[in-house]
Amino acid sequence: MSPALTVFFVLAALSVIGALSLILQKHPIHSALSLIVVMVSLAGLYLLLGAEFVAAVQIIVYGGAIMVLFVFVIMLLNASAEEHTDFSKLAKFGGLPLALALTGLLAAAMIRNGGAVPNSTTPDALASTTDISMMLFSTFVYPFELTSFLILVAIMGALVLAQREKKT
Amino acid sequence: VNAVTTFLTQDGGFWVLTLVKIALLLFIVLTVNAYLTWFERKVVALMQSRVGPHRVGPHGLLQPAADGLKFLFKEDVMPGGVDKFVYLLAPFLALTLALASLAVIPFGPKPLPPPFTFFGHQIDLWITNPEIGLLVLFSITALGVYGVALAGWASNSKYPLLGGLRSSAQMISYELSMTMSVVGVLLMANSFSLTKIISLQDSSKWGLLSWNIFTFHGGFPQIVGFLCFFISAIAETNRVPFDLPEAESELVAGFHTEYSSFKFAMFFIAEYTSMITVSSLCAILFFGGWNSPFPATWTFTHFIPSLILIPFGLWVIFDGVKYETVFGKVILPGLGAAIAGVGTLLLAGLWIAPLYEVSEYIQGPFWLLSKIFFFLFFYVWARGTLPRFRYDQLMNIGWKLLLPVSIANVIITAGCVLRWGHP
Q1: Nearest CA-CA distance, residue A99 and chain B, Å
Q2: DSSP B3-20
């Protein structure tokens, strides 16, 4: 097994364990910490694929900013440990079969053409500022602009929700 | 083949060399940290017309060692009702992340000259030099919040919780303006690599006028960017006047109230290490890094280290003989003689060619370390003079002043780069 493959398996195992722990932990803070582990090990996987910029941004945005907000809110509300409940009926009869079906589908697709999954075409281009901006503003300009609309809508929503009631 | 796979297929010599470099850097940084506390106490004492530490060793020079021993031998109290795992994780996270950020800081331009190699590997003055160096630093800073926030939460106590909440809010707010304020530099350098950012500020022709903070070449002077960056960085490191997470008049000691013994020391070391990181970043991004402030034709400026070392060494000898203790009578004059001797050897480079080469080689590290030292002094200076901000003032400065100003700086710089920038 090549060193890169070993690192891949370690990171993959870490992210799967983190995701499981996220669901199984009782305390919200522990769940949030598990999610941080998932985010950081995903960044490691991106790094392994040669996407250095994406890996750094993954940690800065998801591992840092977003998860700090999660932790902040959990601390602010002083949320305490939750009790685990039994499966709801919807989850038992709708969710479980669907999850199994999705797993099966993914596994089948991977087994059928596992070796043929193509590598990233431009692995080294993902580190330099010029190449990233060229891609962002030419190939992916529509998704990029649409995302900014999405963020604008979210900001407006936050403003409307946080607005103080008008005094009569 | 990418950076990670190349890294994984390196031979044994590379690994040994890197580990040795890491150990050396850790040793130096931890020692510097210890003496930074001494320096801070002395400077603040001078500003307040006091003497400062002076009982342990001459000028209190052994005070850091005494403090370190005290931290090690104090009882390690684990308060009741804490979340054990997170309580132990928090100081560990804070310290490792702070120390890890030093790995990407380049301390000198050239590797050691040819005879000094390690099994065919050249010895660079940095541990690693990734293409995305600045982003690595920012991602480590982004994770650094957890040390403080989790310490506050896990302590199961009111004051630490308030301190942790304050620090998370403060760090989220100031991270934005800190990241925004370096975009100007990135636009001018067109790269995230710290070594490339420094080499573009090459001052061999115009001296300090080609540093990012002053240059009009290929962009716009980043003086506003620098001010925004430095203020936000002080807030990120929880230092005065932004030390609300540990405001002792309100929160006892803030997030580390419930930490004792060496776990407290870990937070302390983490704070001082991030001060060093921020100071090096200021020097690298805005003040030309290892570039000398003088044009390359002024070769006589190569002897500035001697001009500092010789008088300092003589002063240490003179000062040492006044003491009655062994440390003062023997060690201080010896140290002074060594310092003055190094200075004299460098000065002898005027006549002896190999010594001149040494003198030329240490120019880069000398200037970078001098700049880092200046910014560390600035930190202490701010601590000695400025009162703490109120919480609403802190939020207003972050969101309503620094963020808009740094965005305006980005727009102006982008315009200038578009008009006069590199092709």
Answers
A1: 32
A2: HHHHHHT--HHHHHHHHH
B2 and A64 within 8 Å at the Cβ level: the answer is no
Smallest CA-to-CA distance from B282 within B225, B203, B205, B364 is with B225
Indicate whether B300 pLDDT > 80.
no
Closest listed residue to residue B239, CA positions, set B174, B331, B336, B305? B174
Question: How far apart, in whole angstroms, are the C-alpha atoms of residue B168 and residue B150?
Answer: 10
Contact B191, B269 (CB under 8 A): no
Helix-strand-coil split of chain B, %, nearest 5: 70, 0, 30
What is the interface pTM, i.e. ipTM, of the complex? 0.79
Tell me the sheet residues that pair with B84: none
Ramachandran quadrant class, B78 (left: phi over 0; alpha: psi -120 to 50; beta: rest): beta
B79: closest CA among B245, B269, B251, B256?
A: B256
More confident residue, B142 or B23: B23
Q: B125: closest CA among B285, B17, B35, B42?
A: B17
CA A1 to chain B, closest CA, distance in angstroms equals 13
- Inter-chain contact B191–A7, Cβ cutoff 8 Å? no
Nearest C-alpha in B relative to A52: B132
What confidence tens digit (pLDDT) does each residue in B107-159 have?
888 777 777 777 777 778 888 888 888 888 988 888 888 888 888 888 888 88
Query: What's the rounded mean pLDDT across residues A79-87?
Result: 71
Please identify which residue in the block is written with the tokens 């190939």.
A139
Both tokens of A164, joined, read: 């103080």
Residues of A in contact with B85 (CB under 8 A): 30
Fill in the amino acid letter for A145: E
- pLDDT of amino acid A119: 59
What pLDDT is attached to residue B423? 53
Residues of A in contact with B165 (CB under 8 A): 72, 75-76
Predicted confidence (pLDDT) at residue A123 exceeds the cutoff of 60: no
Over residues B195-202, the mean pLDDT reads 84
